[in-house]
Each structure stands twice: as structure tokens, then as C-alpha cells.
Amino acid sequence: MKDIQDQARKVMKGFCRVCPVCDGRVCAGEVPGMGGLGTGASFQENVRALARIQLNMRCLHDVVDPDLTTSLLGFDLAMPVLAAPIGGVSFNMGGGMPEEEYILAKLKACAKAGTVGCTGDGVPDFIHESGFAAIKALDGRGIPFIKPWEDKELFTKLDKALDAGASVVGMDVDAAGLVTLRKMGRPVAPKPVSELEAVIRRTKAKFVVKGVMTPDDAKLCVDAGAAGIVVSNHGGRVLDGTPGTAQVLSEVAAAVRGQVAVLVDGGVRSGADVLRMLALGADAVMIGRPFSVAVLGGGQDGAGQYLAKIRQELTQCMVLTGTASVRAVDSRIVRG
Fold first, then answer.
1. Is 234 a catalytic residue?
2. Catalytic position from the list 106, 191, 234, 269
3. Which of 82, 96, 106, 238 is deepest in the core (most CB within 10 A)?
4. Predicted TM-score (pTM) above 0.85
């Protein structure tokens, strides 16, 4: 991983320092780029909120080979870790790799490791086009996330996602505040629950809503017919001063437990962080920036090495907390 990070540091120079701890401090305000909006407080709080959660170590048990497998949204997963939808290599990551090569490498690494990668959306169009092409190449093993565009563009992209073979599609409603897109003539906007319900009803696939930070919004997603939610503040890139996702996850998950799949992103940097999020109520986690660093630093192999690292760390933490299965994690293994 050190070699992969060293290479990424060269390739991403001027866009990401590839810090020893990716916590959003030195890249505050660097959007476009890999930083957080404004002061970077929302990005930084994601990391701090997770760090405040402590694991209860237990070694008097018989758990030696924990089960990391789970099922989510119709996918069988070797572990509850997905690659989050981050795109825009040319303007966020330094342009050291073509967009289509980047997203295909990420999704292939996830598929090989028995999990799933997500693709992003935005301007220019090659971002979503590269994502759809990668999903098609992998026979639908990927989740495309589409921004909350106005109707014509939204429905066109949803149809393209289905044509690519996607069985699950998502909308990152937390992108609604990207005023730069409106200035470019490509407006995004919040979605009232009536509009969201109409979109979900029209879409012949499981639908995931990303950008849920309150129990009320989570319940509205259930009412609208969503199959899953992602607790997310968009990596701290759209609103300065939000709580970290780990701060709100428990109450959001409790509000909809058993009704929809609950995913979460934000500040996940290790297998221990994955276990923390599961203990707070998530069914699975998404990891963003570190995946991009791994791909830029080592392509598909780099992302594969990163996934192997996360798997090893998660296994170790489950053994040392007496956790037999990721499907049976509960809040008793954490303090904070």
C-alpha cells in the first residue's frame, strides 16, 4: 500500500497530498479537488466522529474465523464494503488516468473481491457514460448514482442505467446544492417526496437514495418506495458545518430498520471503521477517497490491495471483539 500511495501522490500532485490520515485538514476548501467545501468542517467531522467511537475488546470467546459475507439489494457480498461513487478524474484527481480506465479498474477490483463498486455522475457527460460502460462490461455488477437533475435529463440517464444492465440505481439527492451545475445550464434541485415517489415508481430497478442525514428524511424515503438509503453528507463537499455521518447513523438507522437497506459513507478509513459503522446500525459501508487514491496509484491491482487491507483489518477487529458475523453486529461492541 505504501508503494501505491507513493505513486498516487505523484499522479495526483496538486489535487491530493495522499496524507497519512485522510482527514480533510490540509485540503479544506479545495473543491474541485479532493477536499471539503468551505472550512472543510463537514469532511473533518466525518473522520472525527468515527474516531470517537471506541471498540470493546473481548478475547474470551470461540470466534476465530468470522463470517464477513452478507446480501444487500440483491447482491451477494464477500464483505459489507462498497466503493463509493466518485468521478471526475480530470478536475478532481489530477487527470493521471482516463475516466473510463479509472472507473472500470475500480469496478473490476470490487467484482473480483466479491463486492460492488458504484459510479458517479456530473459534467462533462463522459463521467456517467464511463460508469454505464463499466457496469455493462461487468454484466450489471455496479450501482450507478445519478444526480437530482430536472426531469428530462434525469429520466434519460435512468433509462441509460437500466440499458447498461443495472439492477440497482441511486440518486445522490445531497448533490442538490451544486450551484455550479445550474450555472452550466445543467440544473439540479431538491426532490419533494411526491417527485421522488414518481421517479422510483417509474424506475424498474431497486432504488437507493443517497444523502440522508435525518430520521425524518429516512422515513420519507421509505414512504416513497426506496429499497435503500445512504447516510451521507456528500463527503463534506456540498454543505459546510454538518455533523459527521457516524453522529447521526444510529438514529437514522433506528427509524427505518428492517424496512430498507441502510448504507453509510463518510470518513471510513479502515476495517475498524467499517465495524464501527455496522455497530451503529449500517448494513454496509461505502468508501470514497481512499478507493480513488488506490486506483490512481495502482489501477485495478491497487484497488484490490486496498480491499484486501480492509478485509484483513475487519477480520482482525471482529476476532478481537468476539463478533462472529457481520450480519449480527450490534451496539454492544462499541463505546462512544
1. yes
2. 234
3. 106
4. yes
